[in-house]
Amino acid sequence: MSQIVYVNGEFVPAAEAKVSVFDRGFLMADAVYEVTSVVGGKLLAFDGHIERLQRSLSELEMASPVTMDELLQIHRDLIAKNNLEEGGIYLQVTRGAPDARDFAWPDPAEVPSGIVLFTFEKPLIDSAIMDAGIKVMSIADERWGRRDIKTTQLLYPSFAKMQAKKQGCQDAWLVEDGYVTEGTANNAYIVKDGVIITRELSTDILHGITRAAILRFAIEAQMKVEERLFTIEEAQNADEAFVTSATGFAQPVIEIDGAQIGTGVPGDISKRLREIYTEEMIKAAI
Ligand code: PDD
To answer: Among 18, 81, 150, 165, which one carries the catalytic annotation?
Structure first.
């Protein structure tokens, strides 16, 4: 069966989908996106992703081409049309396609925003990486300063990930002014003496939907949480480290810049948080 995608109001086979060469998402990364996980054909943390989408849109004065209720229906239709059981949905809203390339934004009354959604399959529950954990490399954070807005300007994170792969790592942790900001596409945590430490929310990092849920579950499970800055050196001396994202849940980190974390295998707190997260999110899926 060919994949069905959603483009500007229509469900079409992926091979027939078209967007304009003048689309500002394509020309200027003038677009915001969300990735929502699907397990058992249902959406995880949908409300959180939609709230963040609205925030990204409003921070960039971009109009939404559909209502948030319509978005839920489009997500559900796409799941059904693609028989998606486990994986996710990628959603992108762009500032549309004016007649000419111009740094100034077009008037939204004249140029409607564009919207694209597509599904992808990915094993989320049984993930081999969970047993092994990932190795990360540190690299300077050279992204723009509004990382709280989920834009499609992903060249630097993509570059950082490639540098990490060249070093035999699966991901990079970005570092600014001596402190870890986040991973290329995930939030970063360390655990020391039972305390879960992660950077506080600001414009420096994406406000992860998984992060919010993980911290809430950790507190509910009587674990200690500290939202503060930490360095690579502190991370290398931690008992555990892990990252969170919609498509990775909580993934243990076992090595940072060649230094083994804890005993070099996924830590108990990381594993426990993943278990709780998986169980609770599946219960609440819609
Ligand atoms: N990335 N930080 C960054 C820079 C991210 O790109 C992401 C998500 C996160 C985690 O956010 P959440 O828990 O809401 O998924 C943190 C998605 C998954 C992606 O780009 O594919």
So the answer is: 150
